[in-house]
Design brief:
Layout: E1 4-8, E2 12-18, E3 35-51, E4 54-61, E5 64-70, H1 80-91, E6 100-104, E7 111-115, E8 120-121, H2 122-127, H3 135-154, E9 167-169, E10 175-177, H4 183-194, H5 197-206, H6 209-212, H7 221-237, H8 241-244, H9 247-250, H10 274-284, H11 295-305, H12 312-352, H13 355-362, E11 370-382, H14 385-390, H15 394-412, E12 418-423, E13 426-431, H16 440-456, E14 460-461, E15 464-468, E16 471-485, E17 491-495, H17 497-507, E18 514-516, H18 518-527, E19 530-540, E20 544-554, H19 561-565
Parallel strand pairs: 16-18
Antiparallel strand pairs: 1-2, 2-3, 3-4, 4-5, 5-7, 6-7, 8-9, 9-10, 11-13, 11-16, 12-13, 14-15, 16-17, 18-20, 19-20
Length: 577
């Protein structure tokens, strides 16, 4: 099939073939007596790209996406010149030329249909800092343009409007020249826009001086080479010459942009041949048109600058490989960060709940309550805390308790115990829960309690350094039930008479002393190694009369202050070796 003319409405139209072919469905295009075949085309409402000389819309033709460029025409005559131009352009076929597909000849829907290049114009790509373009890509773009223009010139067709915004990039990163030919087809559109500000900018920057001065009556190959020199500058600097100029510069038709300052080296961001590239620019914009090279000569020069040239697809694959490796490194780094964050989260979670319980809750399992036949519970509180709080600010109280309980927490880490909770000045610890440990729970709690009381002798209350910190402690052993209570801020709680009795041991204890029940004393006697003094019979609320004991020290620790301050009410429990 030969030349294509498109009858394109606002949302749908007909592709009409001029020339040979069978006639089908002509009812929508009766005014075109020479049309012989009609095919549907759909024009999308979305805008793909915009340029000063027209709006590029996307359309669907023959099942593929096409670019639809609207032309500003008040009337259209299908002349012999336009027919000849369309025929010439239709015969052009080169991988670096944007393929002409057809056009609409119905006013006001006059437009040109070309293949769609999804990456946009080269100017868009160069100005997008998110796209990593090394010099391999840049020289590839420059070479692609030179090849496309060389093909045009070989067919005696000159562009006359070459700039970075009508050099477009397809999905394989191949640069293609568009907006070539069809001068009569576009004529009125050019004349209408040429009076505007933007077209003047393009003419002054990209058009050769001899064209602007009128010394050349038509577009020449040398004029295209001059336009190409400006593109080379944009490729090197990744800039837009149109948007960077001042009003004063625009008035000078002999203006040249400064040569790019290129850095030579072996890195991807370095120009492989700085001197030759700048020399090529100077030759292309030479005022002496006889000194300007042809595009075929330009192509050969670029090939010498880039001897290891690879295709854009291969370069993209290399970039993707580098990106993949970089991404793998980032993923590994982020994975390590995630693992560290998980460890911190686990550490925080395990400090709030026992590890087996926390793991069950995290995996969505219900943490069932458990019965423990024997465990030891410790309670302590601060003697005179109410008076201390009354003479302190809330901040001072919080700071004091935080320092004290942080010290306690560091101590209990040395023992097989679990901190249940702190409520105000009360401190509760258990051993034998959630991990049973025979009868060792009594010894673990006893040793821990001695350390906690001992540290109080040297602890300084931050805002009352002269006040002696005094705690009283109580210990009891027996069966308990443990489980998680609640779903909001779940707590691991202990239940049973053992907990209540341990609390009574604490409330009836004395400053800087540790009171233990008979059950705990029996276990410590079995374990050996602890000095206990019988306190005697004590009336305990809810329990009646109980015999309790003072935990004085470990057997060999007679230097402990408890030995010097205790008032013994009985004989030490004998402990055999």
């Amino acid at each position: 099939m030969s030349n294509v003319i498109l009858d394109c409405r606002t949302s749908a139209g007909r592709v009409c073939w001029i020339g040979n072919g069978s006639t089908t469905s002509l009812q929508h295009v009766k005014s075109y007596s020479t049309i012989s075949q009609t095919t549907d085309v759909t024009v999308c409402t979305g805008v793909s790209n915009s340029f000063k000389q027209g709006i590029i819309q996307l359309g669907i033709y023959d099942g593929r996406t096409v670019a639809v460029k609207n032309l500003q025409k008040k009337h259209f005559t299908l002349s012999k010149t336009i027919r000849r131009e369309v025929k010439e352009v239709r015969q052009l076929d080169h991988p670096n030329l944007c393929k002409f597909i057809g056009g609409s000849i119905e006013v006001p829907y006059v437009c040109i249909i070309t293949e769609h290049c999804p990456k946009g114009s080269m100017s868009d790509v160069l100005l997008n800092d998110d796209i990593p373009i090394n010099w391999g890509f840049r020289l590839s773009f420059a070479t692609d343009i030179a090849r496309g223009m060389s093909y045009l010139h070989q067919h005696k067709m000159f562009h006359g409007r070459l700039h970075s915004r009508n050099c477009i990039i397809d999905d394989r990163w191949v640069c293609k020249v568009s907006d070539y030919g069809l001068t009569a087809y576009r004529k009125e559109d050019f004349e209408a826009v040429s009076n505007g500000f933007n077209c003047g900018d393009i003419n002054r920057i990209y058009c050769a001086p001899e064209v602007l001065l009128g010394s050349s009556s038509s577009i020449t190959a040398a004029a295209d080479i001059y336009s190409y020199s400006m593109i080379l500058v944009e490729i090197a600097t990744r800039s837009d010459l149109i948007s960077e100029q001042t009003e004063g510069i625009k008035m000078d038709i002999m203006w040249r942009p400064p040569l790019p300052e290129l850095k030579s080296g072996k890195a991807d961001t370095d120009c492989p041949s700085q001197g030759n590239y700048c020399e090529l620019i100077k030759r292309c914009w030479s005022q002496n048109i006889t000194l300007r090279p042809t595009f075929e000569q330009v192509r050969k020069m670029l090939d010498k600058m880039n001897p290891h040239k690879v295709s854009p697809v291969d370069m993209m694959m290399n970039l993707m490989e580098k990106y993949s490796k970089h991404l793998e490194a980032i993923v590994a780094e982020r994975t390590q960060d995630l693992l560290q964050e998980k460890q911190r989260t686990d550490q925080l979670l395990y400090s709030m709940l026992p590890k087996p319980v926390a793991d069950d809750l995290r995996q969505g399992r219900t943490a069932e309550a458990q019965t423990f036949s024997n465990a030891t519970v410790y309670f302590s509180d601060i003697v005179g805390f109410t008076q201390l709080s009354g003479s302190s600010t809330p901040y001072q109280v919080v700071d004091f308790l935080n320092q004290l309980y942080t010290t306690f927490d560091d101590i209990i880490d040395n023992y097989d115990v679990y901190k249940v909770e702190t409520i105000g000045d009360a401190y509760m610890v258990v051993s034998g829960v959630p991990q049973e440990n025979g009868i060792n729970h009594a010894g673990e709690i006893a040793s821990m309690a001695l350390d906690l009381v001992s540290v109080c002798h040297n602890f300084k209350i931050p805002h009352k350094p002269d006040t002696q910190l005094k705690i009283r402690a109580g210990i009891h052993s027996g069966p308990v039930v443990a489980g998680v209570v609640g779903t909001k801020m779940p707590r691991y709680c202990l239940f049973g008479d053992t907990v209540n009795t341990a609390s009574r041991m604490e409330s009836t204890s004395e400053a800087l002393k540790i009171q233990v029940s008979g059950a705990t004393a029996d276990l410590l006697h079995t374990l050996r190694g602890y000095v206990l003094t019988c306190r005697g019979k004590l009336d305990v609320k809810g329990k009646g009369e109980m015999t309790t004991w003072w935990l004085e020290a470990k057997r060999n620790d007679y230097s402990d202050p408890l030995r010097r301050t205790s008032e013994s009410r009985g004989v030490p429990v004998p402990v055999s070796d």
